[in-house]
Each structure stands twice: as structure tokens, then as C-alpha cells.
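Retro notes - structure team

What went well: the batch runner handled both jobs without manual restarts.
What didn't: labels got mixed up in the shared folder, which is why I'm recording both outputs here explicitly, each with its sequence directly above its C-alpha cells.

Job 1
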Amino acid sequence: MISQRLLINLVLIVVIAGLAYTGFYFDANDAVETKPTISELNPDDVHNIEIQAGDLQLRLKRGIEGWDLESPINWPANDTNVGRLLSILEFETSALADATDVDLAQLGLQQPQASIGFNDTLLQFGTTNNIGERRYVMLGTTLFLIPDIHLAFVAEGLSALVDRRLLPRRAEITSLQLPGLEIRLDENNRWRSNRAIEIAQARMVQLVENWQELRATRTSHFGPGLMPRQLIEIDLADGQALEFLLMSEDPEIVIAHPNIGLQYHFRSHYHDQLISVSGDDDAS
């Protein structure tokens, strides 16, 4: 009977022999062939993006702290989603054809459905082909066929690319007026409320931070025909006075920012983080 120790040694010999065989026939210098990317432009070198899709026109600019929308509103952009746009430049695929040799109208590129300008590099979107849900795109005079995952995102426009925080980056709140509650910084840089029962500093500090940092699950267009429930007013350290409208509290919290024409949607369980604060703790 073969001992367990001898059996293990035999297995090791077989494994080593197999590795040696593989190493003998494998040339380490044989690199895996990679396809070229759509563009040689490095996403880190892109500082301006212009999007056009039908009547939609957006312009973005890279700033020191991230991307900002310049048109149709001047507001911070969603850096993660801007990164999704930039990733198109690094998509690996071989060129399909030279645009001068094909009928662009047949591919929906004579009048493109959308276009994205990365600096001076223009990418245009045509129709999809009938196999594999892939879309024709044109960069300069070169045609490519890529998975159809980008155009729907581009068509979302402002809602997809605006920052989902309620306030601009580094905005410093000095007063916050909510329905039934007002808090304000005093001369000693402590928060005071208008309630008879004092609210703990930690609760008020957290409320302010929530307004600065919480991200909505989504944003949507704000129309003038919508009826608000309550007015929310915020004063900032730089002198700005911002007005928001509480549109809904159930089944979700909806807060509108009329000046930029957007609504921010939060799950209803964020009510105590954004709209009210309990005063049952001892003040500190």
C-alpha cells in the first residue's frame, strides 16, 4: 500500500512536471495582443466637455476640486458620472472603416443623434446595428462600433451630470430655516435654535452637515406648475441666500432648487436628517 507521504510526493512531482512543460512552451515575451482605444486622448488631459443631443446642450469644465457645469447652469457636476463619459475614450475596439468610404446617412451619422466634444476631439453617435445592440460612432473620420451603453446616459442630460448634493462644494451654512425650526450660528460659533427646549449642539451640527454632504438618490426637472409644501431658506458665509422648496415628504422627500431648475429626491427615512431634528437630548 502506498503511504500517504509517498502519495503526496508523487502528486508534487506531477505538478512540477506540468509547470515545467508549460514554461518550456510558453514564451514570456509573447504579449497578449490588446486592441487600440477609440482615441489617443488621455482622459486626464480633458479639461472641457461639450454635449449636444437634440435640444440639449451642456458644457462642463474641469476645476481644481472637480468638474463643474458651465451651461445651462453654473453648478458642481457629478464627478463619478463625468468619469463615465471620459471612459469612452479608453474603450478598446478596432476601427471599423474610414467615414469617407461609407454612406453616413445609412449609419445615422449625417445628422448624429448626439455628440460629445472632449477638448477639440468630437465623438458623434449614429444608429445601432441590428446585431448585438452595438452603436455606430465616429471620431474624426474614423468609424467604430461599440456597445450601446452610452447614448441613453448622455440623453439624460443635466439630471445625470449634476452633483447630487444640495449645496455647492465647501459651502458654509450660517443659518438654516426649516418648517418649524430655525438654527443660526452665534458670535461664538455655536448653533442656536428658535425652540424653547434647547437642541444638542451635536444634533444641529449633524443637521448642517447633512445639508452639505448628503447625496440624493436622483435629480429631476423642476417645473413652475408644481406645488410646494414649505419654503426652506439657507444663508451662507459668503453672503449667498438660497431658497429651496419642500415638495414632498412621502413616499420620498423631494426638495426643489428653483434657481437651477432641479429637484432632489431622497428616501423618506432621511426626514430626521434633513427636515427636522429631535430636541429630546440635553443641550451640550
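Job 2
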Amino acid sequence: MHPRRTRKMDSVIEHLGAFSFELSERGRVAVRREATPVYLEQGREVLSEGDPCETILFVERGEVRVFASSSAGREISLYRLKSGDACVLTMSCALASRLYPATARVVQPTVGLALPASLFRTLFSTELALQQFVAERFFSCLTDTITLVTQVTFEPVSSRLSRFLLRQASCEEPTIDLTHAAIASELGTVREVVTRTLEFYASRGWVSIGRGRVRVEDPGALRALLRVDAGDS
């Protein structure tokens, strides 16, 4: 990743204040000297599979999707980086001197801090607050990954799709602006399966389908389907 500096050039320490850990004065001085405030535009690929992890991105605001992909072009989302996050895979690769095993792409314009991997390793060895932050992120990511593997392995697509629609929609905004292909990438399946399932939902009046969007019309029916699928598993 080779980020460019933010236009406003706010102080690095002000950016660092968006995160849940507090460094020692020595650590803050090192960050002020070596870290770079960054702005990443939507659609930008931050890291690709096989890249060296030369910098660690700490997201102040915005959103970055981290996903795995197959040789056939199928994708599945692993997790998303939002305000106050840093990429677990990037941190682990930097600590272990490994290449990045996934892809990270900006889905909403993102502001944050880029720390050189060498600085991150130094801070990790000396700053207890950063160690705790990394441990918490590892635990959270591991828990989410176990949930993801369990769902993909044992749950039907209908359950995963229903849960995704309910999570993305809300009472105030029940419309989800995603294509069928994008939803399939989130769920680790193929577009045809998502389209077929959504068309079945639409025939029951549970959702309505438009070009590049899905509107949840009957969230209660989707919750009921989840309960039925859970009882059948």
C-alpha cells in the first residue's frame, strides 16, 4: 500500500486518538515521526493476495472489506474494517513476516493512519496497550471466523441470505443497494443461487427486487424462515 497524505494534514496524534488504546509518550513520539495520515478512495485495493505487509492501516473512519477469493473468481467476505479497527491479517503477517493471504478493498472512502511494519513491530514489543488492542482484535476476528465457517459449512443459503438481509436492512431504510453478485460475494456462494432464492422470496412477498437493489418487505417472514431452518438442521 502506498497511501497519499490527507489534504488537511491533521496531526498524527489527533488521528491516533480515534482508537481505543493509548500509547506511552515515547510511543506517541515514534508514531508522530513515522506514521502517515492517509485518505483512501472508494474502490481502491489496499492489499492483494501475496503482497508483503509493509504498512498497517488503522481506520479512523470509513470501511474496508477483507475477502478471500478462489481461482474461479468466487469471493467470500472475511470481515470489514470500520472506525477504530486495524486489519488482523495485516498485523499478523507483519509480525510473522508473511505475505498477505486475502484482498482488502475500500468500500467507503476511508481516513486513517498508516504505520510502517517496522514501527508496528517495535511498538508491539514495548506497548502493553497496543498488545491488548491486537489481542482483542484477534479474539474478535477468530470468533467471527468460527461463526462464518459454521454458517457456510452447516447452514443452507436461505438462512445465510435471510440473516444477511435482516442485518443490512432497517425499519428506516429497508432497501439494500447491492447487486445479486455482490450479495453472493458476501455469502460465499454464486450469483445464480442468490437470484433463485431472492426470486422465491419475492414470489412470497417477503422481498421486492429491483436493478441493483433488494427491499425487505416482510422481515417477520425472514425471521420465521431462520427459525424453521434452525429446526431442520
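One thing worth noting from job 2: Confidence is low (pLDDT under 50) at residues 2-10.
We'll revisit the folder naming next retro.
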